[in-house]
Design brief:
- Strands 1-2-6-3-4-5 form a six-stranded antiparallel beta sheet.
- It is built from three helices and six strands; from the N terminus they run H-E-E-E-E-E-E-H-H.
- A hairpin with a 6-residue loop joins strand 4 and strand 5.
- Helix 1 packs across helix 3 and helix 2 packs across helix 3.
- It is 38% helix and 21% strand.
- The protein has two domains: 67 residues, no CATH class; 100 residues, Umud Fragment, subunit A.
- The protein is an alpha+beta fold and 180 residues long.
- One of its GO terms (biological process) is signal peptide processing.
């Protein structure tokens, strides 16, 4: 009878070590993703080095689902640049082209007007009430490259949250139940 209890204890100990190992693996994956993201922020100089185009306002240049790489360098924003900006009080960044830049003499203030390539009017209708221009603090970065269609996974998971939670749960279970 004693050998049965010893066997059960040793199995439990092995299973406990495996579960602990799986949690460590899951933590390392999450930490690696965070380190990569923070590294991209440092290299790009932008608080959000990657963004997904979620509308058709920049077609045909950028389509819905494209991922843009952003960089925030020392060079001033100029007309023709494609920038990603965020309006105060709004959560969703906007990808549009700069159509006009005004710089105030004797100050470092810059006023920027944007427009989507596929839109008939400039973006003043999208700015906050009374706001006519963007300033440098609104700009998240300048588009320096893109990957077509790769961002569709993000769009689908945003449009269907149940799919996102199901996928995260399935991946978590896969990591926790994998045998070594």
């Amino acid at each position: 009878m004693g050998w049965v209890a010893d066997t059960v204890r040793s199995i439990s100990s092995i299973q406990l070590r495996q579960v602990f190992s799986q949690f460590i693996t899951l933590g390392l994956i999450a930490a690696s993703a965070l380190v990569i993201w923070k590294g991209l922020i440092c290299v790009s100089g932008s608080e959000s080095p990657l963004v997904v185009v979620i509308s058709g306002s920049m077609e045909p240049g950028f389509r819905r689902g494209d991922i843009l790489f952003l960089h925030m360098g020392k060079n001033p924003i100029r007309a023709g640049d494609i920038v990603v900006y965020n309006i105060d009080g709004k959560d969703i960044p906007i990808v549009h082209r700069v159509i006009e830049v005004r710089e105030r003499q004797n100050t470092e203030e810059t006023y920027i007007l944007t427009k989507g390539d596929n839109n008939p009017l400039d973006d003043r209708v999208m700015y906050n009430p009374g706001q006519k221009w963007l300033q440098n603090h609104h700009i998240m970065g300048r588009a320096v490259g893109f990957l077509p269609y790769v961002g569709w996974a993000t769009i689908i998971m945003t449009d269907m949250p149940i799919l996102k939670y199901t996928l995260i749960g399935a991946l978590g279970l896969l990591v926790l139940t994998k045998k070594e």
